[in-house]
Structure prediction request, 476 residues.
Amino acid sequence: MSENSYSAIIVGTGFASTFFLWEYLKHAPASERILVLERGRRLDPAERLQRRIVRDEFVRFEDVIINRTPAKPWLQNITFGGGVCWFGNTPRMHPNDFRTRSLYGVGDDWPLSYDDLEPYYVAVEDAMGIGGSSAGPYPRSKPYSFPPHRFNAFDELLAKKYPGLHIPFPSARSSSAGTGRPVCCGNGICELCPVSAKFQNDLHMAHVYVDPRVTLVLEAEVERVDIQAGKVTGVQYRQGTHEVHAKTDLAVVGAHAVMTPFILLRSGLQDRALGRYLNEQLGRGVQINLNGIDNYDGGQSVTGLGLMFLDGAFRKDRPGCLIESWNVPWLRAERGRWRQRAFVTFVFEDIPSFDNYVAVSPEDPSKPEVRYSKHSGYMTAGLESTSRLVEELIGGLPVESYTILPVDGLGGSAHIQGTTRMGQDPGNSVVDRDLRHHSVRNLIALGSGTFPTCPAANPTLTLSALAVRSARRLFI
Ligand SMILES: Cc1cc2nc3c(=O)[nH]c(=O)nc-3n(C[C@H](O)[C@H](O)[C@H](O)COP(=O)(O)OP(=O)(O)OC[C@H]3O[C@@H](n4cnc5c(N)ncnc54)[C@H](O)[C@@H]3O)c2cc1C
Ligand code: SF4
Prediction:
């Protein structure tokens, strides 16, 4: 193998790429040479804290894309470790989320089932030190290795009203010293997490990048994958002013749901679905004033996961929705009643539309152009049902009043999905269930871009489990 030739090249060091590499290294021989190319720099945690850096200004995401729909913001980190500013919320997808077409006649079925993914969920949950309870509609082959965090007072009321359907929020915010990290103290600034209780790739998975088989190059912007006669032969990247070509037998692109399709489009791939079906969930915040109940006494920043409106025959007409019950103390400005408040977010699923997309900008081909015209009528039906759902949720509880907060513009959840979707039909998908490109078989696209639908659950646990599964499948 020549000096600039590798068995595998991995693009990005976010959740998807890191978990792919983690699994890949377990099976790859000692002779393997793996090149990892990361556009961002390594952020020093002390500098991050001191300067309150949530999103790095070294490469600002808003500067490297052209957003054609300013009413919809797009958030992503360009840095070693990828989404280091994530909150750490890690629910699984509901088993029925994988087959909404068969069950409810909407969206698409995933080309794999909950059961196919289940062992990989367990592997990632253990690696991230996720704590949770076995309650809820999520069959598990093994209990969580770490205990759930404590509910707050409002969660206790909901858990009593909805047995088994209001459960402790599973999270990568450490609930026990067994994770090797300090226990979360519930201060609620999780984008920064001053005590490193929250799992981050740059801090807690850095060991995979010092493996002797791995060469990590930072500040290396991948521009394209070289494809000849239906096979990847190499990767082209830029380091400062230098253009570099590296040869490889396998290219794995985990640059997130905006940059991954952009790189593949620049590489000349013309799949009909490539860059299309861009989507995100949408949340509606609800501030609830409680009557005589002091709240915010839970063990972490988001304490309760409400599943009462997540699944059912109603999904034929309107979206499933999960509820995040927050424990960050947004206080009530009334003497003696500071803590008599709860805050919940209703997070709705959507049906992805072909018309929302990422493309190579015709004006500046070095940037992706992102266009998002509107949500589906399905999502609108969900948003319009919010006040009815709130009434149902708080019925019989000691609640004085509530306010449903308006959605700003087209909203945003920082959960960008759908642009390299997986499926069985190359006519409406880009990769197969193993995340391999339908025709260029030594090309893998990772991340939530591969999601064929837009479930209500936060995506990072699922995309990480899919990445582990994809790496494992290469060796079976
Ligand atoms: C404020 C915030 C809070 C969030 N909270 C949660 C949460 O609680 N739960 C949850 O599930 N999700 C959350 N998310 C979403 C989560 O961050 C993403 O789902 C996750 O980071 C996606 O993982 P990924 O590996 O696909 O992409 P990323 O983590 O974004 O990694 C992509 C990597 O590719 C690199 N890259 C990009 N372009 C190139 C290129 N051309 N060449 C080389 N490298 C490149 C990037 O620098 C980055 O390292 C949150 C996001 C934000 C912004
Ligand atoms: S609540 Fe505090 S300690 Fe816990 S993860 Fe968030 S910032 Fe870190």
